[in-house]
Each structure stands twice: as C-alpha cells, then as structure tokens.
Amino acid sequence: MNNPFRIGILGSGQGSNFMALADAVAAGKIPAQIALVLSDVEAAGILTHARHRQIPAQFIAPGPFRTKLDEAAERAFVAALQAAQVDLIVLAGFMRVLKGDFLRAFAGRIVNIHPSLLPCFPGLQSWKQALDHGVKVAGCTVHFVDAGVDSGAIIGQSAVPVLDNDTPETLHQRIHAAEHELYPRCVAALARREISVVGRRVIWRKS
Ligand code: GRF
Predict the structure, then answer these.
(1) Which atom of ligand 1 is the closest one to the Cα of 140?
(2) Which of 74, 80, 82, 121 has the fewest Cβ atoms within 10 angstroms?
C-alpha cells in the first residue's frame, strides 16, 4: 500500500482494545497502519504492548489536572499526532476529556469506545450504572468525539445480555469482550472510508 491510512491510538490503561486493533491490523482486517500510541500514564500497559509490537509509543505528562490535559500537554499531544500524520485518532481507554484546540485540530477524526449502549450511562463505570439501573441488555458504543462527554454521533453498537447473577466484574468482562469485536469492525470501516455522517446519523456504505 502506498499511502496507508494512519491511526494514532490514545490510552491510559491496560490496552486490551489496542491489542484487538493491532491484531486486526496485523491480520489485514483493518487496512491501516498504527502510526503512534500515546499515553498520559507512564506505566500504562498500552505503551508496553505497543513497544512489544514495535509500534512507536510515547508517554506525555498530562499536567496537574485530573480529568483533562493542561495546555502544554494538549499542544504536545497534538504535535506528536500531527508529526505522525495520522488520519484518525482512536481513543482506547483514554481517561481525559479532550478540549477545544485538540478537537479543532482533528475535527471529525476522533473516535472513542464507551462501555454502554449510549446515550444510556455516559461517564464512569457504566457497567455498574447499568446493573444498578436493572437493565436487561447492556453493551458498548463506538462514537465520534465531540465537545461533550460520550455524546458524539454513534458509529456502531454491540449488545450483551445482563444475567441475573452478574456482578459488576462479570458484566464488565462481557462488555469488554464485545468491545474487542466492535472496535476493529468500526475502525476498519473508517479506514476503508465506508462511513459518512449525516447530521447525527452515521451511515455505513460498502465501497
Ligand atoms: C474500555 O472498557 C473502554 O470502553 C473504555 O475504557 C476501557 C479501556 O480498556 N473507554 P482497555 O485499556 O482497552 O482494556
């Protein structure tokens, strides 16, 4: 491929979604290259996994805030992603809200995965919110990132049952497994440019 579609992945945690994506790239299921992995957590598993796979991986100190990047960090993230010439930014467990300058730099090119069937249960520990609410079906959502929290246009969703004997952990595990199938499928469609957005509706077109 002459000009492969280039993906930048941001994560703060263990990186199981990163691994599902990297496996799908390696298997030729996503026609793209993972150009860069960035984390705000120096010891994050996602960086270790990326380095094992010889994918450029970098820690960028996030600054003093707990839920967002400070201005210098935001500039450093944007600069690294621009230098890597990414076509798409994939958030895979990145635990900070991205703000205006970052969003403007990559308008319409940032996606996230959230462990609930949005718009239900945005925010933290959605699997626990789902159990506490008593829903019978839970799941995960891949969506474009906008200025809100888990509020952008929905690209894809996958549902899992909630079982009577579920604990937060067992439900979370079932949702996580669904994520590992859904995210590569959505990112593959984006890389193939089969996705278009009409208002809030995301349309999948086979090329
Ligand atoms: C996933 O549950 C995802 O939905 C949420 O963060 C978690 C990341 O998990 N946004 P991992 O680091 O990919 O294992």
Answers:
(1) 4
(2) 82
